[in-house]
Amino acid sequence: MSSNGEIEIGDLKIDNEDDVVNPWSVTSASQEGVDYDKLIKRFGSSKIDSELIQRWEKVTGKPVHHLLRRGLFFSHRDVHTILNLVEQGKSFYLYTGRGPSSGSMHIGHLIPFIFTKWIQDIFNVPLVIQMTDDEKFLWKDLTVEETTRLALENAKDIIALGFDVEKTFIFSDYTYMGQNSEFYRNISRIQKCVTFNQVKGIFGFGDSDVIGKIAFPAIQAAPCLSTSFPDIFGTAKVPCLIPCAIDQDPYFRMTRDVAPRLGFSKPALLHSTFIPALQGANTKMSASDTHTAIFLTDTPKQIKNKVECLDKNLQSFFPVRRLKQNA
Ligand code: TRP
Questions:
Q1: By three-state DSSP, how is residue 71 classified?
Q2: Residue 244 near ligand 1, beta carbon < 6 Å
Q3: 130 lines ligand 1 (CB under 6 A)
Q4: What tens digit of pLDDT does each residue of 85-101 get?
Q5: Ligand 1 atom index nearest CA of 109
Q6: Which CATH number applies to 6-277: 2.60.260.20, 3.40.50.300, 2.60.40.10, 3.40.50.620?
Q7: pLDDT tens column, 206-215
Q8: Principal localization (predicted)?
């Protein structure tokens, strides 16, 4: 901690009043949840404002999805560039992913996928979905065999959303790495562009983190390079748009730095907020605490019980808000 009460996580200086938002943890300083405007400033992304929404509607000739209209997707990087491409009749592809850490996904996990499906439908573009079974093996107390199985289970939840089967490629890292050497070649190229100091800066890795973690960001970055998918794009360098929750941004800040050095455009991003935990807004829904989340495999009775608990929590949450507004 520095003398002015700031702490440093990676390259971000945050004061004690700040929320913690990174790929491994999300907690807010206030009961009212994460301060997303502050996050935009800290991360250096751009706010999704009414001007961008109007332009999107003009370019597509269709009203935007309610997740955009209602601000669940609130931040972006370079989405204007993607709209420029569409106006010029050029194409792009979508990339999103899932770290399979639980047998069933919960409703918070679905947000980026529901939104990605809508984008795929209106632009009729290819989509790649990365299942990072390797990431969850490295970060969680799970075996390789377990994360391999969870990736398959989660892929079923994702497929159920109804993506275009002709235009969607879902792959697990363990499986695809052995099938396609262009993917691993791009991982290697990215690894050569990033120093240990840089990943320490971006992700806050320390000297005692296992080397698998330190090398992993290149694996999440490689699908941003279209040549990782020769069966879909051949050798063409196609621009990439990533819908994801804002906690994944560190991976793509790193990728946006590397991509131009490898002759690719920087991936564009659409960031979502988090669905709060049922217990209150200061953490996100989490698969590791089953009481905080509604799972896709929950029975109607389980959901009813959880929502009744939520009602009680809301009653204790809202008076605080009202007091603040009156103050
Ligand atoms: N790291 C993500 C997770 O833990 C999974 C992921 C891989 C991802 N590639 C992605 C998420 C691209 C969003 C976009 O869930």
A1: coil
A2: yes
A3: yes
A4: 999 999 999 999 999 99
A5: 15
A6: 3.40.50.620
A7: 999 999 999 9
A8: cytoplasm
